[in-house]
Specification:
Number of helices: 11
Oligomer: single chain
Order of helices and strands: HEEEHEHEEEHEHEHEHHEEEHHH
Distance between the termini: 28 Å
CATH architecture: 3-Layer(aba) Sandwich
CATH topology: UDP-N-acetylmuramoyl-L-alanine:D-glutamate ligase
Radius of gyration: 18 Å
CATH class: Alpha Beta
Helix content: 25-40%
Strand content: 15-25%
Length: about 325
């Protein structure tokens, strides 16, 4: 446990995975097909996590590929705007294109349309991850989409090996997105292999259930991973809160209810809030709750990276919400 926590407390993270462009209809509540105005923002799970960490006072560098065009450059510029180190964000030419998400700021009948054909981030290769000086970071964070295609899959497993040699703990957000994978069976096999190599695993009940082959077996799988390979496992249950397995304990935490505008971005902001709160010296239960507060803030505002909390926003929110709802 100490190695994982010490790595997080360095508050300097190497994040591997995609950066994308988001389009969201304005005003909130507008259906995509009825929209006349869209706003753009930074998206992509790993980019969101990195941006969220920086907004909350931490340091983060991203490793990925972006398309060698105006959209790719937009993503790089946005990363830099949030303070993310983009040294290892490499443009790729040819037919590869940056991912694009078009979604709505509404819960009822919410629609998200994701464009991932020929995704540039899947072109990340072993040379990209080998160029990183792992010793300058405290921990590595990645999200499951990096494993959905080659050469990104092999490159990320290589990054795991390099991180371990440098003594970095590996933090894994399962982040299963079916549209990115050639088959459910392949996704289950590869994500399970990835999870077994990690020190900390974060996922929701459906994701753990998917890896276990049955939604009813997800909690058991999360518990087993905490007993066999991972130092910490966080099993998220949506409105029912989360169960964290660490040090032989099961920590149950609730959520901060808000009037949500959208369902997207919660997991990324949870990770950023959790990491920076541990780094800030908070005990584990408090850090988990601060992560939950970050998730609530993000779903209550338009956009993903733009909606994520900075330190002042988080502290103001917590002052107005003295306790989470336990269900």
């Amino acid at each position: 446990m100490s190695a994982l926590m010490d790595g997080i407390k360095a508050n300097n993270f190497l994040v591997i995975g995609r950066a994308g462009m988001d389009f969201f209809a304005d005003p909130p509540g507008t259906a995509t097909e009825d929209a006349e105005v869209f706003h753009a923002g930074l998206g992509g799970s790993s980019a969101n996590i990195a941006a969220g960490v920086c907004k909350l006072g931490g340091q983060a560098a991203l490793v990925t590929r972006v398309s060698d065009d105006s959209v790719g450059r937009y993503c790089v510029n946005q990363l830099k705007r949030y303070g993310v180190d983009a040294t290892h964000v490499t443009p790729v030419g040819g037919e590869a294109r940056n991912s694009l998400a078009v979604y709505e700021s509404r819960i009822e009948d919410h629609q998200s349309v994701i464009y991932r054909n020929g995704a540039a981030d899947f072109e990340m290769n072993s040379d990209d991850v080998s160029a990183v000086n792992y010793a300058q970071y405290g921990a590595l964070i990645t999200a499951g989409t990096v494993f959905a295609a080659e050469p990104s899959r092999s490159a990320t497993f290589h990054a795991f090996d390099l991180a371990k040699k440098a003594g970095l703990p590996i933090i894994f957000d399962v982040d299963y997105r079916p549209y990115s994978w050639p088959s459910a069976q392949e996704a289950s096999d590869v994500l399970t292999r990835a999870a077994a190599a990690c020190d900390m695993i974060v996922g929701n009940d459906e994701e753990f259930g998917f890896m276990a082959g049955d939604i009813t077996k997800g909690l058991g799988m999360a518990r087993k991973l905490s007993q066999t390979s991972a130092t910490m496992v966080i099993y998220k249950m949506g409105s029912k809160g989360a169960i964290t397995f660490a040090n032989g304990e099961e920590i149950r935490t609730g959520i901060y209810p808000v009037d949500a505008l959208k369902p997207t971005g919660a997991g990324d902001s949870f990770m950023a809030g959790l990491m920076t709160s541990i780094a800030g010296g908070h005990d584990l239960r408090t850090a988990i709750l601060r992560g939950s507060a970050c998730a609530s803030i993000t779903v209550s505002r338009p956009g993903c990276a733009p909606a994520m909390a900075d330190t002042e926003t988080l502290e103001t929110f917590l002052a107005a919400h003295p306790g989470p709802i336990e269900t």
